[in-house]
């Protein structure tokens, strides 16, 4: 299936996990792909997984830096002439203390990357989509943005913000046929969850958290990528402003 032949997709957080799986799938489905991450090693690894001959641009940057975002978008337009898909996927999770012990600088950092970073990319990319009257934006939120638990206050608030940003941007851009949607992953086996749960030493805790899911297992990045590509594709041409839970049933119970 080559749903993205002739299209240009930007994927942030493309150096690992869900972003890597999405970027590779976009390439397999015919897209030219712009890989954004603050880890060059990660981006090199992602590019090595792509089909030979895929047009790729790699950019090491912080998604929360507006100057860097604007420069990247200029570079993409100069090189490829268009942007069809934006996946705002880069994210960090933080240390999860109770709110009474929360460090404000960490709170700001999490909002900066997860929420403001997504807003900045929409702000700078959307005008190029509006002019062409076509484009699809997919933000990676989280089930934590739908309902929360103890200790995840900054992360949950940032992801609730991403869901609301998705809805407001869909309203702002819908008149120009630019669709904006979000995926809300449940627990997925990536670098992020490995850092939080430390699978090797805290297997029991990880299993307990994993059982908060009707399918009784963690997701894998490719399962979230499949949903991201669906929302970015013409198969979702009448879907905008939605937050799709891809969570093995986590939010069903
Ligand atoms: P990951 O840690 O494997 O990948 C995240 C990537 O984003 C990394 O390559 C990292 O270098 C990059 N990144 C982080 N901050 C950045 C910044 N300021 N600028 C540029 N690059 C930056 O994590 P994962 O799990 O693949 O996360 C992807 C998205 O999925 C995140 O937004 C995360 O919040 C979300 N998510 C993940 C879940 C999970 O269980 N793994 C569950 C729900 C949501």
Please provide a written account of the structure.
The protein is of the alpha/beta class and 253 residues long. 45% of the residues lie in helices and 15% in strands. The chain has eight helices and seven strands, in the order E-H-E-H-E-H-E-H-E-H-E-H-H-H-E. The longest helix has 29 residues, at 104-132. It is globular and about 50 Å long. The structure holds 1,4-dihydronicotinamide adenine dinucleotide (NAI).
| Class from secondary-structure proportions | alpha/beta
Order of helices and strands: EHEHEHEHEHEHHHE
Measured distance between first and last alpha carbons: 34 Å
Number of helices: 8
Helical residue percent band: 40-55%
State the major sheet: 7 strands, parallel
Q: Care to count the β-strands?
A: 7
Ions, cofactors and other bound molecules:
1,4-dihydronicotinamide adenine dinucleotide
Low-confidence stretches: none
Rg from C-alpha positions? 17 Å
Q: Overall mean pLDDT score? A: 93
Strand order of the largest sheet: 3-2-1-4-5-6-7
Strand content: 15-25%
Categorize the overall geometry.
globular
């Amino acid at each position: 299936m080559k749903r993205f032949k002739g299209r240009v997709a930007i994927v942030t957080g493309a150096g690992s996990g869900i972003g890597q799986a999405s970027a590779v799938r976009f390439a397999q489905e015919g897209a030219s792909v712009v890989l954004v991450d603050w880890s060059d090693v990660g981006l090199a690894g992602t590019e090595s997984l792509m089909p030979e001959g895929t047009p790729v641009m790699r950019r090491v940057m912080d998604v929360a830096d507006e100057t860097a975002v604007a420069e990247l978008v200029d570079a993409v337009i100069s090189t490829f002439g268009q942007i069809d898909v934006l996946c705002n996927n880069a994210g960090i999770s933080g240390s999860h203390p109770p709110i009474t012990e929360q460090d404000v600088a960490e709170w700001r950092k999490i909002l900066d990357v997860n929420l403001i970073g997504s807003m900045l990319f929409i702000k700078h990319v959307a005008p190029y989509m509006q002019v062409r009257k076509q484009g699809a934006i997919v933000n990676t939120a989280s089930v934590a943005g739908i309902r929360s638990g103890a200790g995840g206050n900054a992360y949950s608030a940032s992801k609730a913000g991403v869901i609301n940003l998705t809805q407001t941007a869909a309203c702002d851009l819908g008149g120009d046929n630019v669709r904006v949607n979000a995926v809300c992953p449940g627990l997925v086996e990536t670098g992020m969850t490995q850092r939080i749960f430390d699978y090797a030493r805290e297997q029991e805790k990880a299993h307990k958290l994993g059982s908060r899911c009707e399918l009784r297992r963690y997701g894998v990045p490719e399962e979230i990528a499949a949903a991201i590509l669906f929302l970015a594709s013409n198969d979702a041409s009448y879907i905008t402003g939605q937050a799709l839970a891809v969570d093995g049933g986590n939010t069903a119970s």
